[in-house]
Known about the structure:
The chain is α/β, with parallel strands linked by helices. It contains 7 helices and 8 strands; from the N terminus they run E-H-E-H-E-H-E-H-E-H-E-E-H-E-H.
Amino acid sequence: xxxxxxxxxxxxxxxxxxxxxxxxxxxxxxxxxxxxxxxxxxxxxxxxxxxxxxxxxxxxxxxxxxxxxxxxxxxxxxxxxxxxxxxxxxxxxxxxxxxxxxxxxxxxxxxxxxxxxxxxxxxxxxxxxxxxxxxxxxxxxxxxxxxxxxxxxxxxxxxxxxxxxxxxxxxxxxxxxxxxxxxxxxxxxxxxxxxxx
Length: 197
């Protein structure tokens, strides 16, 4: 595996997680080659945080500029965006295609795998309410995917100041359910308690 310093990262999806990751990569000396988003304004904001001149609304164009392509889009859009990027020539041999979903396995990135890319689910167990590069520090990142992509994910987690754990694809649903109970239900329980009081 080449060093992370030799990798060119692409962020597709410039919401709070994508922008946090773009800024965190830049802060840790890594190269973000492009940022893509549905809106030009979001793409430019993400590119500014990443320190890259390439901001676009075309995810395949962005992906062609890099070799680690991160799909930071909603879960229900991952397969469609991956297919569009693959159709546009955005994945090739030696590339790594990544998504950030806690619930979905890496198989949702099958169109990238068919183009020769290794695939990875890289899920930061963290809530991102705003773009903040410091939110990766000290958290756990769950990884699932192909061997070469896992190596990239483990190195990336270390570089971001996080700890990584490797899951099997069949563990993802239970993992995600546990996080939902631990985060969302605790808030709901506190709200019920508050109302009762």
